[in-house]
Amino acid sequence: MDIYHIWASLKAGIKDTEFSDAVHSYLGHLKAEGGVAGYRVTRRKLGLGHPNLPEWHITLEFESMAQMDGAFNAVSSRADPVESFHHAVNSKVEDVFFALYRDFPDDHRVSGEEKF
Q: 29: exposed, middle or buried (C-beta count within 10 Å: 0-12, 13-18, 19+)?
């Protein structure tokens, strides 16, 4: 599983539930279309977290890089309905950071001598 991480802060005046609803609409649409295997929307709790990371953390799970590429192609088409969903989220955030991680070891990894 490849896991795409997104951290973001809300722009001034954006309500937390307004943002959360927009993210669930957007990512729910991508999931229904087969673009993502799953996703989570989380928010920092009790002020615990690295000080350089924003309050909101979203993860998107992809079964393969091909699935992720397909989702990015769909979003970058800028065609509706996905463009409207994307804009409804993107317009509400600032200080956005991204990262890509994977389950380890990979399912396809061949066991044997470790390489450094």
A: middle
pLDDT digits over 39-94, tens only?
Answer: 999 999 998 999 899 999 999 999 999 999 999 999 999 989 989 999 999 999 99
pTM: 0.88
For the chain, the domains span: 2-102
CA atoms of 5 and 19, how far apart (whole Å): 17
Tell me the per-residue pLDDT of 22-41, one tens digit each, with 9 for 90 and over. 999 999 999 999 999 999 99
What CATH number does domain 2-102 carry, 3.40.50.2000, 3.90.79.10, 2.60.120.560, 3.30.70.100?
Answer: 3.30.70.100
